[in-house]
Each structure stands twice: as structure tokens, then as C-alpha cells.
From TrEMBL:
Keywords: Membrane, Transmembrane, Transmembrane helix. Pfam families: PepSY_TM. InterPro entries: PepSY-ass_TM. The chain crosses the membrane at residues 27-47, 155-178, 203-224, 344-366, 378-403, 409-429. This is Uncharacterized iron-regulated membrane protein. The keyword Transmembrane helix applies. The lineage of its organism: Bacteria, Pseudomonadati, Bacteroidota, Sphingobacteriia, Sphingobacteriales.
Amino acid sequence: MDNTRTKSVKTNKGEGKLIWKIHHWSGFYTGIVIAVLCITGSVAVFIPEIDYIIQRMHYSAASSPAKKWHFDQSVVSLTHQYPDYQSLRIEFPEKPGYAGIVHLTVKANTAEDRFAFFVDMGKDKILGRRNHQNSIANYLRQIHVRLYEGNWGRYFVGFGGVAFVIVTITGLMIYGNFMKRQQYPQIRNGKGLRLVMADWHKLLGISSLAFNLMIALTGAWLGLQGWFKVKNPSQYQAAAVMSGEADAQTTVNWEEVLGTTARYFPDLVPLSAVSSTDGSGTVTISGNIKGLIYERAINRLTLSKFGLQPVFKYDIREKPFWHKFFFVQEALHFGDYGGLGLKITYALLGLVSAFLSISGFVVYFYRTAKKSNRKSAPLKITFIYSVIILLVLVIAALVSTLIGYSTAALMMAVVIDGGLVGIVLYGLIRFLRRKFCLPKPVIG
């Protein structure tokens, strides 16, 4: 009986050590990525609000009061000014006073420029333009979704989400029972920074468990869709009925388009419209349905440019579970379904998640200070790492907005790929050093 109990205790200790190692190494090797994603995500939830402030302050872009939107002449003027445009999308104002935006992709030699023209939707007047790719709004989106690293960056973010799931679950397994045995909340002040940080790490980790798990799972899903070739279930491609050039030059009466949309899809709140340039001769109005928690603008109605007859309608309410599961992920991840109050809650919880990564590093450096013969203080090391990361993010933002998207993307590719190689080499060196009993270098 005693032998059985002893074996059980040893087994439990062995399992505990394994879980601890998984939590430790998952957090150590991906903690920086998780922290960056949490910090950028906390800001990215406010992209519409931040962009609106920039539009008003920097571009003096706003719409005059009006019962209906008027923008037909502005669109005609822009398409005449850029007759070889590659794509046309109109972004409708979400609130009174917001400017409308006409997005044009214009090809110049071998490069493409994506211009955003601000339109007064009350007076049908073009107010100004910017290069959409070099905007703060695009930077915030791209740095969080793919770390400015194309598809591979998106996969990298997806695997970061997987690591976050592992860290969250193993953290619950490690600290769940421990938290039951102490008063909640309890911070052991006066017993050293290591214990204080460890207590805050446990307390905030358990308190934000549900949020972290949701963000991690949805982030992993969104990042790895392309990796696993998961197709968008709402995709529709109309057959070509003319040349692309003729399609682009076909004039559309946008007031009639919106009126027809309201007739065939009355519950749709229009957010954007796309005029085809691929020869299909269609216009597509995309938007939301009030009271539903799904990705923005996934409901749509496609009309023929000739007669404005419906050729395709996508209403998420009529679709099977798989479609609803697919489109609920982004809404849950970005909190874009409950107003400003929910966004503030998401931002605060996101910063808590970033703190968990930072506090985890502090605790780790304290635990391994003597073993690694490290001279620098753990808090100092963590502070330096944090400042470097923030500087990289700020520099990337400045390069993206002042110089250009492609330059910022190249810079981030060098930083991310170089960092990834460095982490792999670090892990390999540690493995070889342990395996062959090589001496440890003095750090700090």
C-alpha cells in the first residue's frame, strides 16, 4: 500500500514537472511574440476611432449633414482621373459626420498604389487623399495580424496563438490548485520582487483565463486558416460578361444601387461597396446585420450593373453552423460587436495578457539568476528587452507612414526572421551544451 502511494506521489510530481517545463519553455520561446500581439491588439481594437481622429485632424475630412449619401459625381471624377484603375471600393460612413472613403488601386509601372480619397457624403465633394498602405490604420492592422511579414507572418502569429493556448492551459494546471489553497487575492508584499511578481502573475493569469483562452484560440484560428487551406465560405465569383476595361468604364448610379439593396436586403446596414473590374459587370454591397456577432461586412448582395438584378445574396442568418463558426472568430477576437465600452475592456485585458508575458520573464530570470551566473538584475534585463521591442514597433510605424509600407515590411522581415533564427540557435546551443557538458557563458 505504501509502495503504491509512493509511486503515485512520484508520478504526480513527474507530471507536474512536465507540465511546468511545457509552460516554462512555451512562455520563454514565444513570450515576446505573445506580448507584442497583446500590446498591438490592445491598440488595434480602436482602429476605427483612431483613424477617424486622424481624418478629422490631419485631413479635415468630414461629411456635411444630409438625409442621404451623395457621392456619384466624386466617384465619376476619380475614375476619369485614373482611367486605368485596377479596383474600386467605397467605404460608407458608420456615424454622422464621418467622411466616406473611395479606395482606388492604381498601377504605376510595376508598382501599385492604393489611394484612399475622402469624400464629403453630404456635398459630394472630394476632400483629400492618402496612400492607404502608409496609414496608421493599415500599420496597426498589419502589425497585429501578420507582423508586417506577409502570409508567413500570419502563420507565425497563428502559431503564437497556439503557444498562447498551451501557456494558458498549463498555467491553469499549475496554479489552479495553488490558488485554491490561498486567500484570493493575496499578494505577498515585503517578501521580495520575485514573489510579488509571481503572485501577480498567478492572480492575473487565473483572473483573465477565459479571455486569454478565447483570444488565443481565435487568434490561432485566424492566423492558420491559410496554412490549412481553409476557404472563406462566402466567396462568390460571377462569370465574365465583358472585358475588364469595359467593366471598369461602366457608370453606376449609386443612389439606385443603395435603393435596390434596401429593397432586396432590408436588414443590411451597408458598410462598403465594390464595383467590379474583372468583366463580371457587378456591384457588391457588404455590411452588417444589427444584433449579430460576426465578422464585419460578411453579409452582402451582388447586383448586375445592367438592370440591378440580384445575382448573389449572402445572409449569415440563413447559413449552416460551419459558416457561422467561421465568421464569429474575428468578431470575438477584436471585440467589434459591443461598442466602445467592450473595446476598452478588451484593451485592458489585452494589456493584462502582455503583463503576464513580462512578469513571466522577470520570474524566470530571478529563478535562474544563480544557475546561469547572471550579473544583471532580472528587472533590468526585462526592462531593456521591453524597451527594445517598443522601439522596434515605433520605428516600424514611423517607417511605414513616412517612408512606405514596403520598406517597413522589409525591415520587419529582417527583425522577425533574424529573431526566429536567433531563438532556434539559442535553443540548439543550450541543447548541445547540456548534452556535451560544455561550460556556460557568463551573461551580463
